[in-house]
Amino acid sequence: MNTILRKSILGVAGLAFTGGVFAGPIAAHADTPAHATAGKPVAAATVQDEQSTITLNDEQTANVKAIIAATKKAGLPERAAVVSIATALQESKLENLGHLGDRNDHDSLGLFQQRPSSGWGSPEQITDPEYSTLAFLKGLKQVDGWQDMPLTKAAQTVQVSAYPDAYAQWEKQATDLVNQHWTK
Predict the structure, then answer these.
(1) From its phi and psi, is residue 67 left (phi > 0), alpha (psi between -120 and 50) or beta?
(2) CB atoms within 10 A of CB 2
(3) Which among 12, 75, 129, 145 would be 20 to 30 A from 5, CA to CA?
(4) How far, in Å, CA of 184 to CA of 180, rounded?
(5) Main-chain dihedrals φ then ψ at residue 110, nearest 5 degrees
(6) Neighbours of 148 (CB within 10 A)
């Protein structure tokens, strides 16, 4: 197996394991209303870390649109969609992943690599882009001040990854995708 593919698979498995074992759904307790940020434009990403980007296929673009639709359904601002898309870029490259078999010894699934065994939902729910996004957003709403903190810190608080700074590399692409698809 080539080194890049192996590292990618191991990275996803490690993120999924750590997030599922230690975090589970942060939003299991309450549904706190989001702070009022409606109408506030998405700021251009001002990330100083190196940025990554991938070319999206039709499935990945459909998943971006599903994340944006779920964010709107939840009544959250564009910034929540940016955090969600950056998280899904890191966790799955915006692919709705089923069980990875031998490449992953845990039960992480979907866009956000959520785990049924950690209370995120059933496999069917977690592999539904709307459900998994709403579950992620419910967790994000539990993070005090998520709107004003660095994207990677907000995502990490929900996901509890072994690589807490990994989300930052996707902020510019996530911002660009939200700016491109929010009003469509």
Answers:
(1) alpha
(2) 7
(3) 129
(4) 8
(5) 80, -170
(6) 10
Q: Can you give the three-state secondary structure of the chain, one letter per residue?
A: CCHHHHHHHHHHHHHHHHHHHHCCCHHHCCCCCCCCCCCCCCCCCCCCCCCCCCCCCHHHHHHHHHHHHHHHHCCCCHHHHHHHHHHHHHHHCCCCECCCHHHCCCCCEECCCECHHHCCCCHHHHCCHHHHHHHHHHHHHCCCCHHHCCHHHHHHHHHCCCCCCHHHHHHHHHHHHHHHHCCC
Instruction: Looking at mean pLDDT, say which of 22-26, 46-50, 95-99, 138-142 comes out highest.
Output: 138-142
- The reported pTM is 0.74
Whose structure tokens read 């939200």? 178
- Give the model's pLDDT for residue 6: 40
Evaluate if residue 7 carries a pLDDT over 60: no
